[in-house]
Structure formats: C-alpha cells, structure tokens
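chain below, 221 aa
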Amino acid sequence: MSLNEHSDLINQLRECGQLFHRRGWSVGTSSNYSVVLNNDPVELIVTASGKDKGRLEKDDFVQLNAQGQPLIEGGPKSSAETMLHVVLAELDSVGCILHTHSVWGTLLSDYYFDEGVIEISGYEMLKGLQGIATHDTTHWIPIFENTQDILALAEEVKSRLGDPMDSMTHGFLIRNHGLYTWGKDVFSARRHIEIYEFLFEVLARKIMLPKREAHKSTGSV
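prediction:
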C-alpha cells in the first residue's frame, strides 16, 4: 500500500493548500484537508500535522482507517482533528473534507455563537453550494463551541449529521476556530470553501457598515 497510488488526489489537495494559503484562509500551518477513499469502512488520506499548507509536499499526508490509525508505517503524524474528518467521511455523499481558518469565518463564528447558527438568505452565491438552485433560499451554518476534546466534538458533529431535522448540510463553524465543509470530490469541497468565504466576508462587512437612513422625498415642485 502506497500513497503514490493516490498521487492525483494528493496533488488536488496540495493545490487547495496553495490557493487557501494565498487567500489567507490557511496560514501559519493551520487547517487540514482530506480525501475519502472509502466510506464504509472509512479510509481516507489527511494532511499531516504542522505542515505549511502553501508548500505541501507529496509525503505530507497520512492514510488512515476508521479509528484514525495510520495504514502505512513510519509516516508523519496526522492532524489532531482527524476524527472530525472520519465522522464526515462516513457519509456516502462525501469524497473530500476541507478545513480553513479565515479572519471572517473566525469573527462571525463568535459574533453569531449565541444564536447557534449563521443564517444567510437571498445571495446569488448561495447557488454555488451543491443542490441549491436559486438565490431565493435560506441557508444555515451551525456553530460548535471550540474544545481540545476532539473526540467529544466529533461525537457531537456525528449526532447532528444523523438528525434528519438538522440544517447542517454543507458545513459548520467552530467558535473562534474555523470552517469545515465537504463535497462529493475535491472540486466540490473547494467550491464550497470559496462560496462560504465570500459570503462570510459579505456578512461581516455588512455588519460593519453604518446604518443607512431611508431616503425621504421632499415633495417640492
């Protein structure tokens, strides 16, 4: 078993790292990315811990099983958040999971934490999320509390994913931490990152804008 068998998928993740680093979404060795090789039982390739995502090498990845254990001896250590990837990879529709740390996402995750979700409505860019065909829709992004207990957080995420009444369909935020999103393949997941980051910046800048008074006609003739 060798990572060389999956070099194309790994190169796609490396390209994501370069893009996200340039955009300021994966700086200072933050973030982690994975591709799913099998959903049942889970098998995936995830970025190694502590790597500069703008300069990922082909060996900066770890192949893991459903317990988050490496399948290849002697490789680097996987991300501390590996089990979040594992629970997402259990979904049949998931082929790639991406996690970023942007300024706007971090700010909004704290600003909206008491509400528990960020609600987004009416923006054309929502159509970039898989399955959304019109801007005339409302989309919710859940927010989880930040914790160093990743196993507990993974169980909380898994519970939400298994709830048919829940609104967590494309991604979630961790408070003062970052964004997780997923897709059927690397391209889809990367698109979701780009859509979310655009919408986060729009929302945050809108909050900062001064209140605009309604225009009043003078009625003069």
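Residues 3-208 form a domain with the L-fuculose-1-phosphate Aldolase fold (CATH 3.40.225.10). The longest helix spans residues 186-208.
thats it, cya
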